[in-house]
Design a protein that fits this description.
The chain is an all-alpha fold. The protein contains 10 helices and no strands. The relative contact order is 0.12.
């Protein structure tokens, strides 16, 4: 039961990450202007008197049922995940004599913080730093659940594989790239460069890195409150592209090394396959002007790549 709960929680987390991307990319992040309900209801209001009350309470935001339901479904799944993680922690407490408890308890704290970030996402009206932190929290939850699941099958040992250090470095690079991707998404900078491989016809485009990467600012605004200019969005997008290139070479090299090991060849194939797919999705999003299915798939690809690289790290760290 303990293993099954972790499996369900990990699969649900992956789905929530994908659904969260769909919420963000379909511009439904403020489909419900309040939290935790929607216009004061546990569901999206649809009766005439409910709609009238909602418009009176939120006169500057008309009720859009489709966006409201997208946002509420995401909240329902996130709440379910929170209950599952609490159940995992309770069962972990009962198994504490044979099962390390720290990771399960940390996950409870993380999912509570995720709930707060979800609330602040709405109340602070898509503040980029908060939305990016929410994405990072989701990816971290997924990675820790995968690690906890693998621990159920392979007991830790002290002797690590010679490639363990390289795998940790690759995971760190991927984590930074995911943060950069989140910053692109939360600032709506995915189409700041519409050509490929250059940006605005240049290898070093005109870019405002200071305003683009200033974290404590409102969406679409500079630190001083002025409108964020195209050069700042270009900086965000271009740095993500450079990060993608670095990630491709570092993670790709790790995959190549894994392929040369008979015991780890399967992990190498999975890692290189996921990496190639993710790079192809990123390029396709630029060339085809960010169609929603491809954009959501790119987020899913990042989560898949993270899962595989976490599993590789576990195997190498514990030399399984």
């Amino acid at each position: 039961m303990y293993r099954n709960l972790i499996k369900i929680a990990a699969a649900l987390t992956f789905g929530i990450i994908v659904l969260g991307a769909f919420v963000r990319l379909s511009d439904a992040g403020l489909g419900c202007p309040d939290w935790p309900g929607c216009y004061g209801h546990v569901t999206v209001p649809d009766e005439s008197h409910e709609l009238a009350a909602a418009q009176e309470k939120f006169p500057h935001q008309p009720v859009e049922a489709r966006k409201g339901w997208i946002e509420m479904i995401h909240r329902y799944f996130a709440s379910t995940l929170g209950l599952l993680i609490i159940a995992i922690a309770v069962m972990g407490w009962r198994r504490r004599a044979v099962q390390p408890l720290g990771l399960a308890l940390f996950l409870v704290g993380l999912v509570v913080f995720q709930g707060l970030l979800g609330m602040w996402t709405v109340t602070l009206r898509l503040y980029p730093a908060v939305v990016t932190a929410h994405l990072i929290g989701g990816m971290t939850t997924l990675a820790l659940l995968i690690w906890l699941l693998l621990r159920q099958y392979w007991a830790p040992i002290t002797r690590s594989h010679p490639m363990a250090g390289m795998a940790r470095f690759a995971l760190t690079v991927l984590a930074i790239q995911i943060v950069l991707g989140g910053w692109v998404s939360t600032n709506y900078a995915a189409l700041a460069c519409t050509d490929f491989p250059q940006c605005h016809g240049a290898w070093s485009p005109v870019a405002d890195y200071a305003n683009g990467f200033y974290p404590l600012r409102e969406l679409g605004r500079t630190a001083g409150g002025e409108l964020l200019q195209q050069d700042a969005l270009t900086a965000i997008h271009w740095v993500h592209r450079i990060g993608a290139l670095i990630t491709f070479f570092i993670v790709g090299y790790l995959g190549y090394r894994l392929l040369r090991s008979e015991r780890l060849k399967g992990s190498g194939v999975a890692l290189l396959g996921a990496l190639t797919l993710q790079i192809a999705l990123g390029i396709a999003n630029v060339l085809f002007s960010l169609p929603l299915p491809l954009a959501v798939a790119h987020n899913a690809g990042a989560a898949l790549l993270l899962v595989i690289l976490v599993a590789v790290n576990y195997r190498l760290h514990h030399n399984t």
